[in-house]
């Protein structure tokens, strides 16, 4: 091999190593921020608990006046927030990458709305409660995703058509939800409203287990397809030319992403714009190289965790986390709609 080729190969290797180091540093910082956020939410609330006492309580020690607050109130909220945020972050970036459009987020195209409508229907019409509502919400989310995909199919599915059909279906589902709420008796109205705003109020640690199983199962499936998913960012023709099985990849990625969003919505309701925001924020941090799955999961977890804390303790009144993230996400959606005309929709 001649010297110019050796120099070029060496330079390319240096770029790859530099990108890998930068990626590792950013992932480390995001993980550290998430751990610090969890520690903050366990220590600070209406009262302050030192970190050493928190660790003693988590280790099983009985500390009068603190054990119930940390173990029963703060810990479930922090754990569920992290898992819900990670599910939304993974589901959002999977859709946005596969369809090569940042607007193709589950909370924009109606999948979260479908799960919410199913939950409200289960409460108001079927008079269900507890885990049965979550089962109906997951099934509704999967059903709406299948309906959107079927209606979008015309010798293939394009991102623009799927997004428009999803937005239309979301509007219809919101009308159905409003009709159900009008007919709802007053004693079920509060429970039903929780499924519309997105909240982790009153969550129990037991709700984290099915969420964790869903995250490990479907998140693992997404990670196993991360290289194919990244190749799809270059277009179908390029991906097919590089040996990516387009149909199989789309089915695995689509089902996994929908399931993650449905599992998260079944616990917290639709936490607005977390799936929509996580991917673009991760892309700004990481650049264009490498998979955005893990960074988006970490960003999503941070958004829900800190959004819930801000809604509880940093604002004049207490608000559900969905309202806080909605306030953050709405301006970005407007910005993206304006920017999209120039960039043709990229992360």
TrEMBL record:
Record flagged with keyword Cell membrane: yes
UniProt xrefs under Pfam families: FecCD
Tagged with keyword Cell membrane: yes
Top-rank taxon, per record: Bacteria
Signal peptide start and end residues: none
Membrane topology: Multi-pass membrane protein
SUPFAM superfamilies for this protein: ABC transporter involved in vitamin B12 uptake, BtuC
InterPro entries associated with the record: ABC_BtuC-like (IPR037294), ABC_transptr_permease_BtuC (IPR000522)
Entry keywords, A to Z: Cell membrane, Membrane, Transmembrane, Transmembrane helix, Transport
Residues that span the membrane, as ranges: 24-45, 78-96, 108-126, 132-150, 162-182, 202-223, 235-253, 259-279, 291-311, 317-338
Protein's cellular compartments: Cell membrane
Annotated CDD domains: TM_ABC_iron-siderophores_like
Recorded family membership: Belongs to the binding-protein-dependent transport system permease family. FecCD subfamily.
Protein name: Iron ABC transporter permease
Species annotation: Halomonas alkaliantarctica
Lineage, opening ranks: Bacteria, Pseudomonadati, Pseudomonadota, Gammaproteobacteria, Oceanospirillales
């Amino acid at each position: 091999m001649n010297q110019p080729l050796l120099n070029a190969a060496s330079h390319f290797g240096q770029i790859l190593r530099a990108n890998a180091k930068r990626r590792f540093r950013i992932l480390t910082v995001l993980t550290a921020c998430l751990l610090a956020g969890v520690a903050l939410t366990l220590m600070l609330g209406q009262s302050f608990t030192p970190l050493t006492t928190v660790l003693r309580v988590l280790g099983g020690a009985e500390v009068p006046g603190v054990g119930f607050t940390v173990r029963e109130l703060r810990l479930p909220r922090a754990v569920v927030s992290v898992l819900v945020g990670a599910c939304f972050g993974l589901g959002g970036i999977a859709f946005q990458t596969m369809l090569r459009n940042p607007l193709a987020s589950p909370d924009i195209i109606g999948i979260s709305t479908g799960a919410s409508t199913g939950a409200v229907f289960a409460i108001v019409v079927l008079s269900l409660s507890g885990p049965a509502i979550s089962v109906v919400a997951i099934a509704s989310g999967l059903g709406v995703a299948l309906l959107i995909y079927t209606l979008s199919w015309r010798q293939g599915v394009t991102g623009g058509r799927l997004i428009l059909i999803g937005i239309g279906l979301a509007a219809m589902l919101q009308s159905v939800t409003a009709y159900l709420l009008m007919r709802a008796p007053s004693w079920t109205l509060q429970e039903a409203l929780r499924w519309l705003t997105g909240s982790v109020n009153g969550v129990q640690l037991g709700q984290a287990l099915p969420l964790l199983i869903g995250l490990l199962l479907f998140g693992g499936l997404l990670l196993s397809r991360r290289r194919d998913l990244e190749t799809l960012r270059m277009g179908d023709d390029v991906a097919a030319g590089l040996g990516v099985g387009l149909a199989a990849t789309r089915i695995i990625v689509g089902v996994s992403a929908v399931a993650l969003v449905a599992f998260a919505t079944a616990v917290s309701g639709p936490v607005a714009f977390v799936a929509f925001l996580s991917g673009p924020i991760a892309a700004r941090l990481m650049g264009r190289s490498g998979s955005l799955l893990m960074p988006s999961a970490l960003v999503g977890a941070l958004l829900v965790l800190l959004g819930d804390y801000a809604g509880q303790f940093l604002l004049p009144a207490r608000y559900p986390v969905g309202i806080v993230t909605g306030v953050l996400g709405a301006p970005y959606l407007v910005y993206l709609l304006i920017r999209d005309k120039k960039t043709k929709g990229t992360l």
